[in-house]
Every structure is written in structure tokens, then in C-alpha cells.
Specification:
Length: about 450
């Protein structure tokens, strides 16, 4: 058995900016920037507002959603994490949504510590690589057991990131990681409700608290990840987890290998290949909804389980509905922020077309994308008997194989900033985050409150 917890603690403690490969640094820029953009868009969403009202935090060193209010770092991480995941528009990688947990935790604790941009970059790298190390040790899909991977892996990744920010020693970092593991939570049954973004925010909060407690001398098991009653065993769907292979963090850089998938659509990532397929088909064959007899969307069996809402009535529910994704493309020609609202979802034409969508599960497995079929495919049958079939979609737009350009990233950021009613300093914020290591002190980032 490998001493995974201790080895990851040592990795986090010794990690320096100079060790981060250049291609990994580009991924970190993207993760920070895209996450802040979607956080701005989500800052007035109901889950963000309700949590803020219930917590009613007193002022503190950390800025809430780049606005005028502040709070303690743990509460700011919690609220900002919910805002970043509220629209389900944040990035995807390593079996979950890493940036929506790591960035809020890092920003909040960095403000409390007066950290530099380089410190924040290193913290992100530490959190991502620890998260990736655990994700690779589980060959099965957490979703099949009902776990939300962002909730169970995020607390550990955020603990590692905040341990790095606090410059803890190797044993303290291991303790923080162990504390993070005991705060892992999040179930799939709550997808399509406000509780899904709560998972992300709670994981960010857990990471801040784990590092602070470890720094103060709190104790935790130094084998919490690999122990027979530890994290990997507890959450594994079938018990096939790996506790014997050497730790790869810092040796094989998953940031450079796996990277991030930046969402083009504010819906569950499981819909995105089919969305690309349908929009491509519509570009070639403009269709009237009245002419459509049926739509068939083929995707992986894992994806069919995640996309659990077949008759959505709200914008939140629709984010996890392939039926809605297909109907929105046909009716509106897109599936954007303006479509993921209750009024649009409840429109009679959308509701009627969703009834004619069938989702078919493919049990094949993409060799490089666990949980995904070799390709997604959309077929439209018209009332005159004709069948229109999309091209097989293997790589999603915004993913590692088809990354968004800087111009595309800015277009999304600008749109999100507009939704969040941030316009006059949005471009300055975007440019600063895209070269985060050049920031001497965190409060120099536009939109963060100085104290």
C-alpha cells in the first residue's frame, strides 16, 4: 500500500511556481478567468442570494462575488463557490468541476493572507493535481453510486490548495488533506436543484477550514485516503480503487495532460457533445419544430443517468435534461443563459417538443474520456419520413482537443460580466486573471475590495 496521504502532503508543501510547466500555467489562467466570469454571472442567482441572507456574514477580509460586501474567508469561499456553480457554466475536468471549488477557496484565503498572484497559481496547481491523483485511482464512475464528484473530491482539492497558500509543512498539508476527506459530501439526487451548487461552495469552505485547522494544530489521520476505512474505499462504487501505484502528483502533470473543458453552454457537460451535434445539423438543415416527428440523441449510459430530468419545469431542472437541450436548439437556435430560465422552459412549444425526444444509451466507452461513449449522435425524423443524422461528435468544443481561443474566452467572460452587471472593469479583470502570476498582491485584482 502506498502512503498516499503523506506523499500528497509532501508534494503540496514543496511545490514552487518554477516547477509548474508552461502549458500547465496556461490551463490555470483559463481556470481562474473562466471561473470568475461565471461567478459574476451567478452572483444574483437564487442559491447565492439565499445563502448570503441565511449566513448574513459580518464584514471581513474577503470580497463576496466581486461586489461591495465582504466576509471572513471561509464564508466568502462558501458563497462565492455557490455563485460560481449556480449556472452550471463552469469548467469540467478530472471527473468534476475543479475551478468552481478551487478558485473561490483560493481567492478568499489569499485575501485574508495578502497572498501574491504566484501564490494563487501554485495553490491552484496543488489543488488540481491532488484532485487528479484521487480521480485517477478510481476506475469506475462515482455517479453510478450516487456521488457528486465535485462534492467528494472538491473538499480535498481545496484543502490542498489552501494548505499551499498557508505554506504549511508536509505533515500539516497531509492533515489538511485528511480533514478535507472527512468533509467530502454531495449526492446526485440533488442535481437540478440549488443544492448542486451548494456542494461546490461547501467544498470550498471545507478547504479553507481544513488548512486553518491543520495550521492551528488540529489532528487527523495521516493515512485517511488509503486506509481500508478511508476515503478511496468509502466512496468507491465497486471497490476497484488503486492504493498501490506510486503517487504521480508533481511527476506527471495532469494539468498539462487532462487540462480543462470550458463550457460553451450553461448546461450539464453531459449534454454538450449532443448540443454540438444538433446545432451543426440545424446549421445545415434549418428545421421548423412543427415538421419534426421525433429526435433521438445517443450518448453514454453514464450520461443518461446524470441527465435525470426528462420533463423539466424550471431552468435548474433543464440543465440536466437532454430533452430540453434538443428542444431549445430547435426552437431558439441555441441553449444559452437566456434559455435556461423558467419561463422559456415552460413554453408550450418547448414542452411539446421535449415529448418527442428520445435518449438512447450507448454502452461503448471512449478510450480517452471515461464516462463518455465513443461518440454522440443526433437523429431527427421528419413527418414526411426523411431522417437527418448529425456527424458523430467525438470531441466537444471547448474541450482539450478543441479549446476555445482567447477571443472566445473573452466573449464568454464579457457575456457573464454583463449578466452580473459588471461592465466598466470587466476587460481589465479578464486581462489580469489571464496573467495572474504578475499580480504582486491579491487586492490589486480589479473588483476585489481593498482593506
Amino acid at each position: 500500500m502506498t502512503d498516499i496521504t503523506r506523499a500528497l502532503g509532501a508534494f503540496v508543501a514543496q511545490l514552487k511556481f518554477e516547477q509548474i510547466p508552461a502549458d500547465a500555467l496556461e490551463v490555470i489562467h483559463t481556470g481562474f478567468t473562466d471561473c470568475v466570469g461565471v461567478m459574476l454571472a451567478g452572483r444574483d442567482e437564487p442559491p447565492t442570494r439565499i445563502l448570503l441572507d441565511v449566513l448574513a456574514p459580518p464584514p471581513g477580509p474577503s470580497t463576496l462575488t466581486f461586489g461591495s460586501r465582504t466576509a471572513s474567508a471561509p464564508e466568502a469561499a462558501w458563497i462565492n463557490g455557490v455563485a460560481a456553480h449556480a449556472l452550471d457554466f463552469d469548467d469540467v475536468a478530472i471527473k468534476g468541476h475543479p475551478s468552481t471549488v478551487l478558485v473561490p477557496a483560493i481567492l478568499a484565503e489569499a485575501q485574508a493572507l495578502g497572498a501574491s498572484g504566484r501564490d494563487m497559481v501554485v495553490a491552484y496547481a496543488a489543488g488540481y493535481e491532488v484532485w487528479a491523483e484521487l480521480a485517477r485511482r478510481e476506475p469506475d464512475h462515482y455517479h453510478t453510486k450516487g456521488w457528486h464528484p465535485t462534492g467528494i473530491l472538491g473538499a480535498i482539492g481545496a484543502a490542498a490548495a489552501c494548505a499551499s497558500l498557508n505554506k504549511l509543512n508536509a505533515e500539516q498539508c497531509a492533515v489538511a488533506i485528511s480533514l478535507g476527506a472527512s468533509q467530502s459530501a454531495g449526492i446526485m439526487a440533488n442535481f437540478g436543484t440549488m443544492t448542486k451548487p451548494f456542494h461546490a461552495g461547501r467544498s470550498a469552505h471545507a478547504g479553507v477550514m481544513a488548512a486553518r485547522l491543520a495550521k492551528a494544530g488540529f489532528t487527523a489521520a495521516l493515512d485517511a485516503l488509503e486506509h481500508p476505512q478511508g476515503f478511496l474505499s468509502a466512496v468507491s462504487p465497486t471497490g476497484r480503487f488503486d492504493v498501490t501505484s506510486p503517487v504521480q502528483a508533481g511527476v506527471v502533470w495532469q494539468l498539462a495532460r487532462t487540462k480543462l473543458s470550458v463550457k460553451k453552454y450553461p448546461m450539464c457537460f453531459c449534454t454538450h457533445r449532443a448540443l454540438d451535434a444538433m446545432l451543426d445539423l440545424l446549421a445545415e438543415f434549418p428545421l421548423d419544430p412543427q415538421d419534426i416527428e421525433s429526435i433521438t440523441a445517443m450518448t453514454s449510459r453514464r450520461n443518461t443517468k446524470v441527465l435525470r430530468n426528462h420533463h423539466p419545469q424550471t431552468g435548474l431542472e433543464a440543465k440536466f435534461s437532454m430533452e430540453f437541450a434538443m428542444a431549445s436548439c430547435v426552437v431558439a437556435g441555441r441553449a444559452g443563459l437566456s434559455e435556461l430560465v423558467d419561463d422559456f422552459v415552460q413554453r408550450p412549444d418547448i414542452q411539446a417538443l421535449m415529448q418527442r425526444v428520445t435518449v438512447v444509451a450507448d454502452d461503448g466507452e471512449h478510450p480517452d474520456m471515461p464516462g463518455y461513449s465513443p461518440f454522440d449522435l443526433v437523429t431527427v425524423t421528419l413527418k414526411d419520413g426523411r431522417k437527418l443524422e448529425s456527424q458523430p461528435i467525438t470531441a466537444v468544443r471547448g474541450g482539450p482537443d478543441l479549446p476555445l481561443s482567447r477571443e472566445d474566452l473573452w466573449a464568454k467572460f464579457e457575456d457573464c460580466a454583463s449578466v452580473g452587471k459588471v461592465t466598466f472593469w470587466a476587460k481589465s479583470l479578464f486581462d489580469t486573471l489571464m496573467s495572474l502570476e504578475d499580480v504582486a498582491e491579491v487586492n490589486q485584482i480589479p473588483g476585489l475590495k481593498t482593506h
